[in-house]
Amino acid sequence: MLNQFLSIIKIPTLFLIMALAFLQPALGCETLQMGYFSKITQITDGDSVILEDGTRVRLIGIQAPKLSLGREDFTDWPLANEAKQALSSIALNKRVRLDFGSETQDRHGRILAHLFIINDDNSEIWLQKYMLQEGMARVYSFADNRLCISDLLNYEAKARSNNKGVWSNDYYKIRIAEKPNRILELDNRYELVEGRVISATKVGSRIYLNFGKNYKDDFTIVIEKYGQKIFNKANINPLTYENTLIRVRGWIEIKNGPIIEVTHPEQIEVLAIR
Fold it and tell me: What pLDDT does 26 receive?
């Protein structure tokens, strides 16, 4: 289901740009399982709704700015109320179809689904696509729920290029891997980080993608053994990312320097190959 990671050496720029498209994991939506129909009666936040029977649904594949929702020591993220309003304006009290990928329920008991508004003329509005196009969410994937991510990344990219929604706010700007001191301030935040992998090594059971020469201070991607298995199934060898300009998304952790643990290929976008 995934395109193979290609090895490209000294080809013209035009062909390189064309080839980069094939380097991205491509889990499309064609294998989504059609579920059932219902009605949205409440909007919890920009990526969560409640159906008429009380079922709580998380829009899988995206992450909208988070509201505190009564949680202690949690501050609303910038534009969280705007994201909730954007989803409410199009989805509240609308009939929807739930389609499913792999996992259908999270640890909080919420249903995980792609939601499609069904209009009177039977046309559809894919809510994940809508929120990304409005700049009111970012792509957010899981190792066990990865369908449609290649499409969603395209919608996100268009909103980002137009500086829409969250992309106009510094809180959500893409971080620079070569400036690890600034990333250190972002512990336990979901971030997008860009930079060139200067070395890719396997030490014991882990793969490390290093963005600087000092692994104790510089930004690093870590891929554990279970993540490597998913890369292998996708015919992608993470060690081939060496000398590659990439964008990675995930949660920042501080272990010596800042790191992001990558569990599946869709967390990494290839931007250029030297």
Answer: 45
Write out the E strands in 92-241.
95-100, 111-118, 124-126, 138-140, 175-176, 190-196, 199-203, 206-210, 220-223
Cβ contact 206:238 at 8 Å: no
Q: CA-CA distance, 236 to 234, in Å (whole number)?
A: 5
Q: What are the structural domains, with CATH classification, of the chain?
A: 13-26+174-273 (2.40.50.140), 33-167 (2.40.50.90)
pLDDT of 83 higher than 60: yes
Between CA 263 and CA 108 the distance in angstroms is 21
Residue 28 to residue 7: CA distance in whole angstroms: 23
Q: Tens digits of per-residue pLDDT, 59-82?
A: 999 999 999 988 888 899 999 999
Given a cut of 90, whether residue 102 has pLDDT beyond it is no
Residue with tokens 């993220």: 77
